[in-house]
Amino acid sequence: MAYADTIRAAQATFTTTANLIDGLLATTATASAGSSTSTTATTLAQVPDMSLTVTVPANSIVKVSFSFIGSNSTTTINCQYGLSEDSTATATTDTAREFRGPVASVNAFEYLGFVEHTYTPTAGSHTYRALWLAGSGAAFYMRYRRITYMIFQKGA
Predict the structure, then answer these.
(1) Number of domains in the chain
(2) Pairing mode, if any, of strands 140-153 and 79-85?
(3) H-helix or E-strand spanning residue 10
(4) What's the gap between Cα 66 and its chain centre?
(5) Is the pTM of this model over 0.90?
C-alpha cells in the first residue's frame, strides 16, 4: 500500500503505524432505500431492505452502521432501533431523538437516527440487519435509510 510505504520511508519510528495502516480496510458495502416504510411492531423486527450478507475473512473486525430519517404518528418519541449479526441483536436499541417538528398533522415529528456497532465475528458468512420497533405501538415511518459495513483486517 503506497501510503503505508510512504510513512515507513519517512522515518523508522513510523513503522508500527504503517504496519497497522497497511491493508487495514479490506472491503465495504452499503444498502440504501428512499421509499417510505412503516411499522407498528412492539418487538424488534428487521427494517425492510436493510440487511447485508458478507463473507468475513479470518482475523477481521466488522463495523456496521445504520442511519435513517423517520417520523411518527404521535407527538411522543416512540421508535427504538438497533443492529443484529445473523439472528442475534448485538447493539442495544436506542430511542430516536427529535431533530425537527412538528411538520405535518399525521407525522408529528421527524427524526435523524444513527447507531453503529463493532463485531469480531468468526470467519465465514454473516448477515447484518437493522432492527426497529414502535415502542408505544403507534406507527413509525422511515423514508431514507442506509446500512453500511466495513471490514478491517487485524494485523498479524
Answers:
(1) 1
(2) unpaired
(3) helix 2-10
(4) 3
(5) no
* Measured distance between the N- and C-terminal CA atoms of the chain, rounded to whole angstroms: 16
Q: Which amino acid is at 80?
A: Q
15 inside domain = no
> Residue 76 sits in which domain range?
26-153
**Amino acid residing at 142:** M
> Residue 53 corresponds to which cell in the numbers above?
450478507
Confidence bin at 106 (pLDDT 50/70/90): very low
Read off the C-alpha cell for 143. 423514508
Q: Rounded to an integer, what is the distance from CA 56 to the centroid of its chain?
A: 17
Closest CA to 74 of 48, 96, 43, 92: 96
Quick one: cell of 114? Answer: 444513527
